[in-house]
Design a protein that fits this description.
This protein has one helix and no strands. The protein is mainly α.
């Protein structure tokens, strides 16, 4: 034996214990590696789902944009038609105002003439 006082049986037991601990460490390292692979697999799945989600959102946005664009043309045409109709009504209103003004002027002239005639008649009858 050497200077240390370890009995050969104790030395064998120590080596067995070291072997068990080493085996357990290898098992823990293996489990850790497996968990790391599982985590990476989950991350990859999350990235894939995120990518599909983004693509679905983009497709939905595009469909909505297309629907909005498609509905804008009929709305614009209707607004243009309404604008044209309003313009036509404004012109017709202006013509009617002019006609009323002419009729009023003619009516005023006739009334003025009748009144003047009546005044002259009254003057002539009162003499």
């Amino acid at each position: 034996m050497s200077n240390n006082n370890i009995h050969p049986t104790e030395s064998a037991q120590i080596l067995q214990a070291i072997g068990r601990v080493s085996g357990q460490m290898e098992m823990l390292i293996g489990q850790h590696r497996e968990q790391a692979r599982n985590i990476e697999s989950i991350r990859a799945e999350i990235r894939e789902q995120e990518s599909r989600f983004r693509e679905a959102v983009q497709q939905t946005e595009q469909r909505l944009s297309d629907k909005i664009d498609a509905s804008l043309e009929p709305v614009n045409q209707r607004v243009d038609g309404l604008s044209k109709r309003v313009t036509e009504l404004e012109h017709e209103d202006k013509r009617l105002i002019e006609k009323v003004a002419k009729v009023s002027a003619v009516g005023g002239s006739i009334s003025g003439g009748l009144i003047a005639g009546a005044i002259e008649l009254v003057k002539h009858l009162s003499k």
